[in-house]
């Protein structure tokens, strides 16, 4: 396949446009790179365009950022990491103003901190809590930091009108007539530039397969990655409206290996069918996580905010499902660690499914929820056969016989032992303070969540 005259003119015109846009003002660029075809075209075009400008005119930064959710498909994140390294090295060699960055969610907002720590159910299309926490928020934080530093920034994204009618409509709604830049829907002082907005899929692949990568990648390998995964890319998303138009990243896209929004993870299946059999335990875990999502015994009867709700009508009315119970979360953590011990990533010997800092966050969340047994170090030790450098609180609240008495009393008076543990944890947190402002407010919050929530039933009338 060769680029015809029309294609070459289109590429030449776009490179000229990129150069003109870069030289127009002093606002730095933040280029989104997801490892897929469209974002590869964007970074390659920008790199090519700027490499043709005189060095003295390269006066503003170009940040290339990629979102690492910490649960990306292993083959994809390895490819992204290698490419970012090559881009940075080539930029330094040529004296070009590029900086590459991987942005991650805060430890308290990762997939495992949310699901295993707080009990969030695995995502579904109508409760896709993961995208904001793991993709949009980290990218937006990076952008806002640049806004704080420079006043305004320009986001350069590989979005195209022909991806979907909805995407084209969203992009059109942010377009100012006669202007190349689009308004960002939520971030003040951030603008969006989409150089390949009018590119077709043929334009994208024609460019990639006929124009060499400036940093030495082989784009035929990228095409093979798509073919092996039966997949498309999950774009770096920095706009909530664009997120809604993008649908699920798990729907035949390079995305998170734990994605349960779709029925099948075609990317993982595709990789496995093409010889990457070491990914089988990840696929099996992902399918199991999807299967247990709506098992009633694994879910609490109330939401995180304490409300309970009914679904259905009359005799079909049933209690809705809340977060995963603590026991279910322990089960999920144990199984995840078992998979981590089993998986051998041939491309990254240090590959782990859950980070140490996530385990520490989960431990803290569980402790606040009444896990006096301190289960995280215990589960980790039992599965992994080793210990991490845990910090321990030697101040035991109760002796074993006292705990037995407390459990007996709770059963006698039909009070949830976990509720009592959470109330005692709050009392412990405030112990030693002369002024304990906020203590009773926290008591009330916990009681509304775990005990008095029956007075807050939604959608139910006697």
Automatic annotation (TrEMBL):
Pfam families: PAPS_reduct. Residues 30-213 form the Phosphoadenosine phosphosulphate reductase domain. This is DNA phosphorothioation system sulfurtransferase DndC. It comes from the Bacteria. CDD domains: PAPS_reductase-like_YbdN. It comes from Tumebacillus lacus. InterPro entries: PAPS_reduct_dom, Rossmann-like_a/b/a_fold, Sulfate_adenylyltrnsfr_sub2, SulphurTrfase_DndC. NCBIfam families: DNA_S_dndC, PRK06850.1.
């Amino acid at each position: 396949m060769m680029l015809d005259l029309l294609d070459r003119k289109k590429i030449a015109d776009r490179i000229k446009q990129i150069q003109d846009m870069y030289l127009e003002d002093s606002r730095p660029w933040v280029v989104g790179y997801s490892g897929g075809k469209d974002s590869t075209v964007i970074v390659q075009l920008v790199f090519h365009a700027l490499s043709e400008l005189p060095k003295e005119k390269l006066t503003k930064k170009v940040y290339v950022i990629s979102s690492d959710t910490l649960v990306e498909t292993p083959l994809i994140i390895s490819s992204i990491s290698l490419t970012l390294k090559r881009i940075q090295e080539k930029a330094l060699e040529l004296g070009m103003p590029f900086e590459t960055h991987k942005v991650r969610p805060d430890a308290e907002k990762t997939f495992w901190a949310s699901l295993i720590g707080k009990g969030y159910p695995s995502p579904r299309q109508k409760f896709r809590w993961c995208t904001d926490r793991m993709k949009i928020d980290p990218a937006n934080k990076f952008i806002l930091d640049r806004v704080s530093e420079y006043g305004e920034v320009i986001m350069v994204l590989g979005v195209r009108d022909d991806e979907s009618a909805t995407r084209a409509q969203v992009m059109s709604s942010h377009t100012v007539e006669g202007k190349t830049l689009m308004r960002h829907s939520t971030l003040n002082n951030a603008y969006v530039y989409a150089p390949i907005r009018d590119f077709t899929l043929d334009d994208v692949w024609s460019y990639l397969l006929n124009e060499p990568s400036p940093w030495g990648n082989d784009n035929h390998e990228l095409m093979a990655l798509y073919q092996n995964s039966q997949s498309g890319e999950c774009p770096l998303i920095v706009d909530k409206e664009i997120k809604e138009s993008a649908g699920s990243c798990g729907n035949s896209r390079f995305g998170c290996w734990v994605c349960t929004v779709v029925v099948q993870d075609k990317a993982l299946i595709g990789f496995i069918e093409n010889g990457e059999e070491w990914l089988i335990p990840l696929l099996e875990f992902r399918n199991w996580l999807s299967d247990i999502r709506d098992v009633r015994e694994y879910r609490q009867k109330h939401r995180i905010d304490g409300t309970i709700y009914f679904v259905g009508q009359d005799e079909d009315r049933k209690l809705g499902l809340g977060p995963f119970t603590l026991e279910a979360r322990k089960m999920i953590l144990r199984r995840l660690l078992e998979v981590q011990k089993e998986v051998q990533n041939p491309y990254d010997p240090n590959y782990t499914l859950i980070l140490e800092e996530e385990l520490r966050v989960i431990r803290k969340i569980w402790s606040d929820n009444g896990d006096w047994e301190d289960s995280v170090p215990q589960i980790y030790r039992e599965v992994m056969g080793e210990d991490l450098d845990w910090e321990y609180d030697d101040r035991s609240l109760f002796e074993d016989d006292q705990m037995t008495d407390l459990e007996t009393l709770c059963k006698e008076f039909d009070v949830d032992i976990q509720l009592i543990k959470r109330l005692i944890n709050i009392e412990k947190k405030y112990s030693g303070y002369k002024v304990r402002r906020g203590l009773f407010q926290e008591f009330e919050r916990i009681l509304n969540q775990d005990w008095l929530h029956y007075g807050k039933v939604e959608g139910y009338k006697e």
